[in-house]
Fold each of these.
Amino acid sequence: MIKRIKHSLEYLIDKSSRNKTSEAEENLLNNFALSEYQNSKWDESSMGNSVEVSKNIYDGIQLRIVHKKAFNFNPYLKYMAAASILFLAGLGFFFKPDFAKEKQLSFKTSSNPKSIKLSDGSKIYLAANSSFQYPEKFEGDERKVVLLKGNAFFEIAKDKKHPFIITSGELKTRVVGTSFHIQMSKSKCEVIVVTGKVNVTSKGQSVDLVPNEEALFESQKLTKQLADKSFLVNWYNTDVTLDQTTLKHVITILQYKYGVSFQYDNEQVLATPLTVFIKKDAALENVLEQINYITNLKFKVYGEIVKVD
């Protein structure tokens, strides 16, 4: 019974955070929170000072309201703050939290892409110069991982009862079983869907994606657009031929696959037409040799930067 209540509450809170609840569902959340607040007891010895804890959460909610300027003020928010702590404590969240059971592991790459298989059967293809965090074994109702740096391709094992959630910077990508790219840099983050359906959220914004669609988060704005066809394959694990394309297009693929940035003085060279074959396990230097031969340029690798000498 408790597990069912917990699941329903998590579902409504998640739905509310994405601004998709009906008026009746919002009233249900408010009434539940007030009821829990009025009927619950606080254990100071194990849970701390109730006034301070409630104030901290309430202040955080207030800041979010001020930042968004779009929420209607809810008179029950402070009850929800305190009641949430009480209810979660009653369910054992503070004493036996699911995430405490999950031993977190790190997976990093240096100069070449690599892949890893997770405990649920999902496969992650990590670009060069990237970093990924995941649990040794998934516990609880959700499968949560974090793309800390760089780019990755995800092939997620289907499990409708346990959604898979990837945090990448300020984005959260929620799926059940599908395949997609996440490409993250300092200025933006992209989610490109190859198969299945994906939900992407950030800062109260939400978009649903299907194959051939892309979510772009840039300048604090989340938008949906059509994806570039060259991204609709797992080129971390597939040989790719870029036939009669431009140097700019080739550079874009190389930046994502090898986690590097390109520097050049003459942008006109980006329009140079060429055909390049990229073997799935090829070193960046080998691909650059092809480009240098075709274009008579001299691209050279300096750590995570590629320059034209």
Note: The radius of gyration is 23 Å.
Amino acid sequence: MTEWDIKKLQILRTLSERGTVTATAEALLMTPSAVSQQLSNLAKQLGVPLLEAQGRRVRLTDAAHLVLRHAEAVFAQLERVDAELDGYLRGDAGLVRVGAFSTAVPALVVPAVRRLREAHPLLEVRVREAEAAEAYELLASGDVDVALSLAAHAPTARDGRFSRVPLLADPLDVALPAGHALASVEGLRLADLSGEPWIFGGSGPWSEITLASCEAAGFVPEQAHSAAGWTAILSMVEAGMGVALVPRMATEGGARRAGVVMRVLTGEQPRRHVVAAVRRGAEEGRGVGRVLGALRRVAQRLG
């Protein structure tokens, strides 16, 4: 019977995620030669080649992918063991680390932490702001226990490393200058704003969401100004420099300006879908489960 080495499987898994031996070594705080040696030893133990040269890089063989498919179940079971032991040893105490994108922090995470402080004062929640791609890297590497992001930028349901938890379909409202001609029009539709100058990010998730929402309404928005933060976007709207789509979570979280009118759109309301993810099996842990439960309750109130 083959003797399996969890550490070597973790190295193989990280190489699959990071793509190069150098990046794998950096992620695991090892030297590239140590990574190569460990993977060479694993290949000898299993009796199959795991890596193939591809120019200056290496790629995983079909045998390596087969091993990883089964290894994911092993990693998930180990997460369950850790979760149960944590609950057994700590009871209501413990530490849960949450990585979340910027608007989710004040709208979802902070209210959830307040609830948990009242109900479970010995449970510590540590928050780290991170964009979607970084949040999942942190989750995969074990640096956070819960990652919040947009569904469009989350791993698919087929990714065996994570369990996804839908939280919220966040409506997108339109921000108009207070004196705008359409600020008080009844039945405002997104298509009514096709001729307006628009303010949104030059790249990234929010740019994609704005473009996709406007295209679904039948037009391509003219980008007059580019900004990524809600403070900058809403200050430009207030100054009459353009209009913008704003997630309701952002205004719930305090991103408001006195000279900006927020209008709920009629017809097909554009939305962005917010999800949480944990390493598969970790959701059964008492602390992670309580954090997910608190996030769900806050999301239901927002919804």
Note: The longest strand covers residues 162-177.
Amino acid sequence: MADILQGTGAGGPSGHRAWHARDAKAAGGVGSRTVRVRVSATLVVLIVLAALVVPLLVPLDRQAVDLAVKLRAPSLAHPFGTDEVGRDLLLRCVYGLRVSLLVGVVAALAATVIGTAVGALAGTLGGWADRAVMRVVDLFSSVPHLLLGIFIVAMFRPGVGPVIVSVALTHWLSTARIVRAEVLSLRSRPFIDAAVSGGASRWRVAVRHVLPGVLPQAGLAAVLMVPHAIWHESALSFLGLGLPAHEASLGNMVNSARSSLLAGDWWPTLFPGLFIIVPTLAIAGLAGAWRERLNPRRRSELML
């Protein structure tokens, strides 16, 4: 009673100020999250447009060599400067970005399909089959992704295809775990018990009820996997195991620019690096917003 009379209780001025502060903080969280989503979406749109439009607007062969203009600093003629053999860095960065996006999207989709199939199979069958499948997943997870990817691409000639296969075969494990956990959660729902009691086969239950329930999580896993695939491709190309050295790959460009950086020429390293970092951050920002939407409890925790 004394607290209320003094204005320090939940109904007093201090309590009202606390609630208003919490509401303002929650509103600020929503506002910052909206800004983040808008910035990420704008960057993704600009990245896709750049990958599609810039090669059409800039009439310059991406492999053209002109030693007379090698290592020129950024200028109006060459906004990103030129590399060690006089090639325009802007166009080469865009072509490298196209390769990275191709590898990222295709490999992420392939890995998601594999992981969804394995996770759904393990969660649906249960018992010894579930344990056996998850032990295989644990076995592959014990090997570092990059090391396993190097082993895979080393068996083929350098190119986009082997890199996609390498990324897909090393990134499906987390999706399998997520889908399996979601399937186990769905199996305990009343509508699944009703479908089984109504005589539905295990296959019908899996296709009609379980699979639609795990698709949002699988889609989120695919989006989150794209940045990982981009970095994986860049790392393999940087090590000389991805695309051929003459191809416009962001990893190749960073690798070939090391000597230029030591000589004080910063632009051959900076711009390819930005073309790796910015798309991954933009895609990760959109994926984070999607994850918060799928998990309202987590979203409310982030607001408080």
Note: Residues 1-12, 23-27, 298-304 have pLDDT under 50 and may be disordered.
Amino acid sequence: MTEARTAAAPNGARDASATAGPSETGAPSPPTRRVVQTVELLSRHAAEQLSLARIVRATGMSRATAHAVLTQLTAEGWTVRDEDGNYALGLGLMSVARRAEAAFPLRRTAADAMRALAADRGVPVFLAERERDTIAVTEVIGTPSVPWIRHARRIPFAPPVCREFIAWAPESERRAWLAAADPAHRDRLATVLDAIASRGYSVERLADDSAPMLEALSALRHSPVTDPLRHRLSAMITELITIDYLPDELGENNAVVSVAAPIFGPAGAVIASVVSCPDAHLPAAALRELAAATVTAAESITASLRP
């Protein structure tokens, strides 16, 4: 993901977007976006105190606009300012977040089963929830070794990932998802989706000899590089990923990043998944045991959602 940036007005200049009134046409609101940018930035550095200059650089706001936004957020208790003029999230925002959790009960419902799975199998576990065209990581138990697995991380609901969400979908939705895939991957993806629906889980794997190269490419992708280079690096990473395991492909030593099992909502659609993250080479028997435990955890959560 790349952080959105906007052109900053010269320091001291009036930023018109900061004083614009609310749109009556349904168009995006720049002032609201400034607040969201600021809160998102501070949340990504929750253990730090960020200077105004750093916030200006990261968001692209003018200094005057950033100061105005932070002054209001601090007055509301959503941020705090220390003696050196640095900012962090405040307790007021935590109170809002706790009240908002009532609208998203799955995280609380799934917590006990996820903790039991993590403790029993000795691996990190996370909860992934679908929200329209994205998948969000909403709970993480343990510390996954894969850098992208972190709380609040979002990924597009697009091939070749999110397979456990689409394997049980209606045929029309499945066809649309496959149509968005790289043509070279479509036949394998269709076969893999059938295997996932049959056995009850998906496996994220790496080609056996690609792990060191993938780690190096991932580090480069998250360094200060241009968007074209970042996109090329992402494409190279995708090329190193082998899409799942089919039954006859399991061997004595299988490179397993994660195992995911679906959680079904009351209407029968897959609304989330429980994901175990061994990030290790596993014998076929060990992989099946981990998968069975992950499926059992997902099934218990599904059962708790039934009226």
Note: The chain has eleven helices and nine strands.
